[in-house]
Amino acid sequence: SAVISQKPSRDICQRGTSLTIQCQVDSQVTMMFWYRQQPGQSLTLIATANQGSEATYESGFVIDKFPISRPNLTFSTLTVSNMSPEDSSIYLCSVDEQERTNYGYTFGSGTRLTVV
Amino acid sequence: AQKVTQAQTEISVVEKEDVTLDCVYETRDTTYYLFWYKQPPSGELVFLIRRNSFDEQNEISGRYSWNFQKSTSSFNFTITASQVVDSAVYFCALSEMPDSWGKLQFGAGTQVVVTP
Asked: Cystine design at A108: which of A5, A6, A98, B12 (Cβ 3.0–4.6 Å)?
């Protein structure tokens, strides 16, 4: 499967600041996805990031709060802006490997964010 | 509306017992994919299986087996002879086609606790 490097693995941030999370893939992928997992909860898709176009955001998520970049086919960033304690979550990037037989979506190891 | 329902919040078993995790999904699409992921305490998401809507064959992989029944919209997962290393949260997920290509809709997850 694709190998995804996600940085930072964890961070503790002050409210009102911003954090940029990086996702690097070892192969070119068309679609990259960003998910949020709030404490004790399931995963929710934030947005889909395609290279060369604006990210597509899911209901409840807006670009001003979660700006995303996708400069090439192996890299993406998610910024969590003007953070509040409610943003404390694990953020995960994912890539689509369904072209590979019997495979699915591969996830990065996640960024565990705590906002104080 | 919740499209993937995992009614079991937590299941506790003693090592070597079998454990079955239930997953019920809801979709109007005829083409869709179902997935199971494992999330151990370390937090990463581990892909276990992908099943498309046209393949109702049950699958066995080592101690893992899956029972897909379209008639009841269920995709259940059984761990045979559980081990302590199976302790994790297990997520069932649905990907609908084609409008929701790439969007994984996760269930709430089932925490499996295996004690020696």
From this structure: A6
How confident is the model at residue B89, as a pLDDT?
Answer: 97
Question: Which residues of chain A make contact with B45, given a CB cutoff of 8 A?
Answer: 43, 92, 107, 110
Question: How far does Cα A24 stand from its chain's mean position?
Answer: 11
Ranges under pLDDT 70 in chain B: 1, 98-101
Question: Cβ of A105 and B109 within 8 Å?
Answer: no
Nearest CB to A106: which of B47, B102, B107? B47
Say yes or no for a CB contact (<8 Å) between B50 and A103. Answer: yes
Chain A residue nearest residue B42, CA to CA: A109
The predicted pLDDT at position A51 comes to 83
Per-residue model confidence (pLDDT) at position A77: 97
Pairwise CA distance, residues A48 & B20, whole Å: 33
Rounded CA-CA distance B19/B34 in Å is: 20
pLDDT band at A101 (very low <50, low <70, confident <90, very high): low
- Contact call for A44 and B43, based on CB within 8 A: no
